[in-house]
Design goal:
By secondary structure, this protein is mainly alpha-helical. The protein has helices at 3-11, 29-34, 57-62, 76-85, 87-96, 108-176, 180-201; strands at 40-43, 65-68. The protein folds into three domains: 1-69, HUPs (Rossmann fold); 71-106, no CATH class; 115-177. Residues 2-81 form the Cytidyltransferase-like domain.
């Protein structure tokens, strides 16, 4: 951000009534009186200059210096560190949004490297998605297969029981049917014996 953008950013803060531009690094009494400044708020870290080890020491001595507390991830240094750390991600995201490599001051090789990496990440993401969906499907199929196997076993056992009952019932019926061949032989044998006895009497 240039100075103008930084000024505009501060003006949009609802707690800011007025923005004074082109202020000096060291605030003297003349500047404070001219701009009607009652207090100066800044972090308590000593900032050195050519003539002092702490440019805010005279304000601290007068009791008009209010130290501010740093917030993690909000300070300029932390923001710059995050930008440097996640530089590739920011460039890839803005390239995907339609910004050109020239707009982002990215060279041809770096641009293609980032675009290739973005495609690889997309493939990895899709692979992990398919892998997760496949795992869920297999778990579902495993549960269903157990159910099918259980039903099949129950059906098979039921068929065996019915078959056993049918065979037992059939055997009982067969054992109760008279043997006609044996009965015929008995009748013929009785007739022969009767004829023999009759011949002897004559």
């Amino acid at each position: 951000m240039d100075d103008t953008e930084r000024y505009d950013g501060v003006r949009h803060c609802r707690y800011v009534d007025e923005v004074v531009t082109d202020t000096p690094w060291v605030l003297d009494d003349e500047f404070l009186t001219q701009n009607k400044i009652d207090f100066v708020a800044h972090d308590d870290i000593p900032y050195e200059s050519e003539d002092s080890t702490d440019v805010y020491q005279h304000l601290k001595s007068r009791g008009i210096f209010i130290p501010t507390q740093r917030t993690d991830g909000i300070s300029t240094s932390d923001i710059i560190c995050r930008l440097v750390r996640d530089y590739d991600m920011y460039v890839r995201r803005n390239l995907a949004r339609g910004y050109s490599a020239e707009d982002l001051s990215v060279g041809f090789i770096k641009k293609n490297q980032l675009q290739l990496q973005a495609k690889l990440d997309t493939v990895k993401s899709k692979f992990h998605t398919y892998e997760e969906e496949s795992r869920i499907y297999m778990e579902h199929w495993e549960e269903r297969s157990k159910e099918y196997i259980h039903k099949f076993i129950c059906l098979f056992e039921r068929a065996n029981v019915l078959n056993l009952l049918y065979r037992t019932h059939s055997s009982t019926m067969i054992s109760n049917i008279p043997n006609e061949e044996n009965n015929t032989d008995d009748i013929i044998s009785s007739n022969n014996n009767w004829n023999k006895l009759k011949s002897k009497r004559q």
